[in-house]
Fold this sequence. Notes:
- The chain is an alpha/beta fold and 199 residues long.
- The chain has one domain: Rossmann fold, CATH 3.40.50.
- The chain contains ten helices and ten strands.
- The longest helix has 12 residues.
- The chain starts with a helix and ends in a 6-residue tail after the last strand.
- 43% of the residues are buried.
- The structure holds iron/sulfur cluster (SF4).
Amino acid sequence: MFDLNEVNINLSRRGFISCVVPDAAAALEKSLEIIGRDSVGIGGSLTVKELGLAERLREAGNAVYWHWTDGPLAKNGAAHADIYVCSANALTVGGIPVLTDGSGNRISAMCNGPRRALLIVGKNKIVGDEREALMRIRSAECAGANAKRLGLHTPCADEGVCDDCTSPERICSVTAFFERPSKGLLKTYVVLVDKNLGL
Ligand code: SF4
């Protein structure tokens, strides 16, 4: 079990604007406060879906671009929204968010495009270091479960182990370690949630 306050301090030292909240309801309210009236791009994220963030934003009148609800073309709008929201696949105790994408859309937006970015991260994604982050990301519980959710047949989904596959259905193609927030954005926020969220 990792100390979220320690992770929070380490994120702040690296230049992220971070905080700890107790549960999903508090994470939702904090996210709405950070986003304000801005237009919002959302990456593929079970965490964001579990919070019901897109629904609350649309009710409030924010422009929302999310390919999970609006189709693939929404990725273009998301890449140029005022703020981009997603989760990380892992977050080290030392304060390094780690993201793995199939197409690189989340990583790209976290590096350049929107003016701000917001990561919402449940405590289940905290790991000891970068090596453990990669192990988590390629585990049956993370990549395997995501591939199953998408109906894909990869070794992590079908056999429960990663073999660095050459499958055309491979979901992990691009990985980024954010040792600092990208200089391409004005601000990168991290909301740490003291509950399990997402995969
Ligand atoms: S490389 Fe292939 S087997 Fe390994 S985690 Fe990625 S999709 Fe799964």
